[in-house]
Amino acid sequence: YPGPHKNLARALYSSGEVDEAIKEYKLALALAPADPEIHENLAQLYYNKRLLGDAEREYKLVLQVRPGNVNVRTNLANIITLEAKLDEAVNVYKSVISLKPGQVEAYYNLGLALEKSGRVDEAVRYYRRFAELAPPSYETVRENALERVRVLTLQK
Questions:
Q1: How confident is the model at residue 155, as a pLDDT?
Q2: Does an H or E element contain 154, and which?
Q3: What is the pLDDT of residues 2-24, one digit of tens each?
């Protein structure tokens, strides 16, 4: 039963002992290798340590079991953007938008990935869509998106 290892991993993480938490999650996985919660928590710890390849692998394992998990898809897209796998990131962000059109961060992040990959016209379109959908709490990011639109439009 993986429960005690999961509980200990959470406690270790809370006290800042990330490496020890990872060890406990790995022990939990030995007992329940298909548990998506363990893989997701382990992915987050790997991400926190900037072990991006390990985090990517764990998130992909979660998606095999829970393909509709928008948060995991978003985290995966963020990681593969950092890894400069921009075409893959674009596809994952688009899948997030498909599954949850109200996930406004995905529009902005998709704009960033498209811009980095040189697909400026598409980036502008997604930045604008983000600006349309963004709630008031995203005002600073909204202003940034509109600035990106202005700069990219001027560069043409």
A1: 85
A2: helix 139-154
A3: 999 999 999 999 999 999 999 99
